[in-house]
Amino acid sequence: MSSDYEYSDEDVDYYDDEDEDMLSPQDDDSDPSDEEMDMDTFGDDFKVPQRAARKSYEVEHESLPQAAVVKLKAADIEHISGIFGVDASTASLLLRYMNWNKERLIEKYMDNASAMSVAAGISPPPKAPASSSAAGPERSQGTSSGARSGALRRPTRQTPAPAPKPEPFVCPICFDDSQTAFSALSCDHTFCAGCWNAYITSKIREEGEHAIRCMAEGCSTIAPDPFLHTALGAGSATRERFNELLIRHFVSSNPNLKYCPYPSCTYTVSCPTAASKSALTTIVPTVTCGADATPPHKFCFGCAIDSDHRPVICGVAKMWLKKCRDDSETANWIKSNTKECAKCQSTIEKNGGCNHMTCKKCKHEFCWVCMGPWSEHGTAWYSCNRYDEKAGVDARDAQSRSRVSLERYLHYYNRWANHEQSAKLSLELYNKTEKKMEEMQITSELTWIEVQFMKKAVDEVEKCRMTLKWTYAMAYYLEKGNEKELFEDNQRDLEQAVEELSELLESPIDADAISTLRQKVTDKAVYVSKRNEIMLEDTAKGFLEGRWTWNVSVEGFD
């Protein structure tokens, strides 16, 4: 990142010896101390704070409160309003129609402004001109008739009839003739204020609409913001809800922005680095919103997973979660209750006590216990003593081969689920640790601040279990090879360190060995943090360098 304090040799002007007199001080009375001024005398006033280097598994992002997002939206509206020369409400409708894509809007509006205004619901479509072809022949026919008669009629003087009294306007929705306040959009469809208020409120509160059309059937005109504000009245809760819907539409339409998914959190995160799908093949965009929460709100900017799924990229993480939803319980049940036919490999469930099985698909008869052909069992109907028969051995080998995929999946799933369950029990671990911290404070001379090492260790364990959980999802899809072996070596070292630290945290408190426990827990927590760092760093660099290959097709990879 460039800085205002950085410079290069190209920016420096060099002077010849002839110019030295121009630059030398001419006043002999000048204070020599001014020439030898030491910048250190100013302390930290002139020191530039050094920003910590961003790690390879971190992404640059910015947390925005709601007020900042409102300013971004207002800036886009002002930008379009200035270019097109329209008011803010018109610019807002145009931007909402184009999903806040300023570049596409400018291109289309400059091409045909009228068509864009009609498409965005700002103005009604032009009416087709009335045809006058029918009136022409009638006039010519009347003229010829009068000419043939040859008689000129004498005009008669008539007294003009009094103008009819105009009937009061009645709202076509409620037909309430007592209403006196009416309003209409640019389409001139007029309705009473009460119907407008009820209609707009229903659209906003119940349907979550931010683009509210005219109530007339078939009319596509959109109500502008000032019209809606007037219809709802100042200070209305529905008006606040409408403004919130506008902000949400602005954020959801902007690929650089994403709302924090945590309940009741109003912060938005800006992360342009992860705005494109191609970027999600090399980074895991885990971001943190600016809410003052413990623990901080962490989530993935690139997908709908509301948690930190490093080190695995979004495409693989979504594949794994889908497989777990579809296969985990089914796979466990199949493994426990079924076997495959030795002939056609169909999955068969035993639904009776007899070991004589018949495949419904291929009609192959076999023994449920040894999987050998039933023809070799003689009269041993309810017991099997043919374990070593060659056909039975071959059948069991075929069944084992067919279940390799299932066993492999369960290997990774069970370990993934184990760490997920351990992470869910973190609240219970926090409560136990807090009681131990209180016990340490009572039985030793340590202060409450000094016993915080236990809580920090629990934080580290929880964070590393999340990393370990997702490493098993990644390992399941990694292609066999040296890279996978190195990955699993890092995984093993991290898991071993985490389990050792967890064991220290679970151990009972010995009043005479608190200082020793403190040293062991602190050292092990530092080591665990370092192993986690190595795991995340190496995996992130592997994505950037293209080291990882997959055993299935992954979105974004050739």
TrEMBL record:
<feature type="domain" description="RING-type">
    <location>
        <begin position="171"/>
        <end position="214"/>
    </location>
</feature>
<protein>
    <recommendedName>
        <fullName>RBR-type E3 ubiquitin transferase</fullName>
        <ecNumber>2.3.2.31</ecNumber>
    </recommendedName>
</protein>
<dbReference type="InterPro" id="IPR031127">
    <property type="entry name" value="E3_UB_ligase_RBR"/>
</dbReference>
<feature type="region of interest" description="Disordered">
    <location>
        <begin position="120"/>
        <end position="164"/>
    </location>
</feature>
<dbReference type="Pfam" id="PF21235">
    <property type="entry name" value="UBA_ARI1"/>
</dbReference>
<dbReference type="InterPro" id="IPR013083">
    <property type="entry name" value="Znf_RING/FYVE/PHD"/>
</dbReference>
<keyword id="KW-0863">Zinc-finger</keyword>
<keyword id="KW-0833">Ubl conjugation pathway</keyword>
<dbReference type="InterPro" id="IPR044066">
    <property type="entry name" value="TRIAD_supradom"/>
</dbReference>
<dbReference type="GO" id="GO:0016567">
    <property type="term" value="P:protein ubiquitination"/>
</dbReference>
<dbReference type="GO" id="GO:0008270">
    <property type="term" value="F:zinc ion binding"/>
</dbReference>
<dbReference type="GO" id="GO:0061630">
    <property type="term" value="F:ubiquitin protein ligase activity"/>
</dbReference>
<keyword id="KW-0862">Zinc</keyword>
<dbReference type="InterPro" id="IPR045840">
    <property type="entry name" value="Ariadne"/>
</dbReference>
<feature type="compositionally biased region" description="Acidic residues">
    <location>
        <begin position="1"/>
        <end position="43"/>
    </location>
</feature>
<dbReference type="InterPro" id="IPR017907">
    <property type="entry name" value="Znf_RING_CS"/>
</dbReference>
<dbReference type="Pfam" id="PF01485">
    <property type="entry name" value="IBR"/>
</dbReference>
<dbReference type="Pfam" id="PF00097">
    <property type="entry name" value="zf-C3HC4"/>
</dbReference>
<keyword id="KW-0808">Transferase</keyword>
<keyword id="KW-0479">Metal-binding</keyword>
<dbReference type="InterPro" id="IPR002867">
    <property type="entry name" value="IBR_dom"/>
</dbReference>
<dbReference type="Pfam" id="PF22191">
    <property type="entry name" value="IBR_1"/>
</dbReference>
<keyword id="KW-0677">Repeat</keyword>
<dbReference type="InterPro" id="IPR001841">
    <property type="entry name" value="Znf_RING"/>
</dbReference>
<feature type="domain" description="RING-type">
    <location>
        <begin position="167"/>
        <end position="388"/>
    </location>
</feature>
<dbReference type="InterPro" id="IPR018957">
    <property type="entry name" value="Znf_C3HC4_RING-type"/>
</dbReference>
<feature type="region of interest" description="Disordered">
    <location>
        <begin position="1"/>
        <end position="45"/>
    </location>
</feature>
<dbReference type="InterPro" id="IPR048962">
    <property type="entry name" value="ARIH1-like_UBL"/>
</dbReference>
<dbReference type="Pfam" id="PF19422">
    <property type="entry name" value="Ariadne"/>
</dbReference>
